């Protein structure tokens, strides 16, 4: 997933200095961004109030959109470095192509996990023959310094482990939850889980007190630790929890995002995650000159040009603003 904002805001994320060390209930509002074709997304991370949740550094929620007579998602080839992209669908399908030669259609409740490492480029589009509705989330995971120059690669996991309780079905897409571990490659202590709640469900989900957490509402209406969540909203929960009360007012879909607070400070601009202004500047130059990021073959269209860098150097702003 690309950040198509033509004036992306640079920020330095990470570091433990702004981690909330106790349970909180901080509701984050989305920013609406056009993503190409007929897709508008609700951007929840980075947010004016919070930049990261564990290693999760970017969260977009989109749909459900009726694209029966529309092209749907159409995101041209664009670059990434220093991160993983997580594609997660509730409805529809997305065709992924990348510069390593990967070609994969990702369908609902299947994990599409792309590790950019030092450099990759990819495109995402709704297939020409596609389902009527498109609904999902696109997320980024920051790579720690020890792994951010790894070889780029793509993983597709159609079968994922689950955790169940009365009224709850949790699919573990990344990391571990309640002793169940995803096959997706993770480079930091992390969890991503898709939670399906039946109407009237009242459960408590086990958590790790050393992780910080957030919950994204995908559909329906549910109460998370007593806070009502509507689709397209994100509740930050802080650290220090051993369990999370969940109650569904209707059939509901949520995403649990969490992990060990990310210690390293990151400069994130456009589709790059680095450690300095110079590194981001070089990545932009490499993309614009056709170096390093490779070629996405088979996409019918031109690559996405990079926006201009801001006039001044990229400056730190921390985990929160």
From TrEMBL:
Keywords: Oxidoreductase. Its EC number is 1.13.11.24. CDD domains: cupin_pirin_C (cd02247). Residues 304-314 have a biased composition (Pro residues). Residues 193-292 form the Pirin C-terminal domain. It comes from the Bacteria. The keyword Zinc does not apply. One of its GO terms (molecular function) is quercetin 2,3-dioxygenase activity. Signal peptide: none annotated. The keyword DNA-binding does not apply. Residues 41-141 form the Pirin N-terminal domain. Residues 301-321 are annotated as: Disordered. PANTHER family: PIRIN (PTHR13903:SF8), PIRIN-RELATED (PTHR13903). Belongs to the pirin family. This is Redox-sensitive bicupin YhaK (Pirin superfamily).
């Amino acid at each position: 997933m690309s950040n198509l904002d033509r004036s992306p805001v640079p920020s330095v994320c990470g570091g433990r200095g702004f981690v909330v060390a106790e349970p909180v209930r901080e509701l984050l509002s989305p920013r609406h961004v056009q993503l190409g074709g007929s897709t508008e997304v609700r951007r929840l991370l980075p947010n004016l109030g919070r930049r990261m949740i564990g290693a999760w550094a970017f969260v977009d929620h989109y749909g459900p959109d009726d694209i029966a007579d529309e092209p749907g998602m159409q995101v041209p080839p664009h670059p990434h470095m220093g991160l993983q992209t997580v594609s997660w669908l509730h409805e529809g399908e997305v065709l992924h192509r990348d510069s390593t030669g990967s070609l994969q259609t990702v369908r609902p409740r299947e994990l599409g996990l792309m590790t950019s490492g030092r450099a990759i480029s990819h495109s995402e589009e709704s297939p020409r023959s596609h389902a009527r509705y498109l609904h999902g989330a696109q997320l980024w995971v920051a790579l720690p310094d020890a792994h951010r120059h790894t070889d780029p690669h793509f993983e597709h996991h159609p079968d994922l482990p689950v955790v169940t309780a009365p009224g709850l079905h949790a699919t573990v897409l990344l990391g571990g939850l309640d002793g169940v571990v995803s096959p997706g490659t993770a480079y930091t202590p992390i969890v991503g889980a898709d939670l399906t709640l039946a109407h009237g469900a009242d459960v408590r989900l086990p958590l790790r007190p050393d992780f910080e957490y957030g919950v994204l509402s995908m559909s329906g209406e549910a109460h998370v630790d007593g806070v009502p969540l509507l689709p397209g909203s994100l509740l930050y929960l802080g650290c220090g929890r051993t369990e999370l009360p969940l109650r569904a007012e209707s059939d509901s879909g949520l995403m649990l995002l969490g992990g060990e607070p990310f210690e390293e400070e990151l400069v994130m601009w456009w589709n790059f995650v680095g450690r300095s202004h110079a590194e981001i500047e070089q990545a932009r130059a490499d993309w614009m000159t056709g170096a390093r990021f490779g070629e996405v073959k088979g996409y019918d269209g031109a690559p996405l040009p990079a926006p201009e860098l801001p006039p001044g150097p990229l400056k730190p702003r921390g985990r929160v603003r």
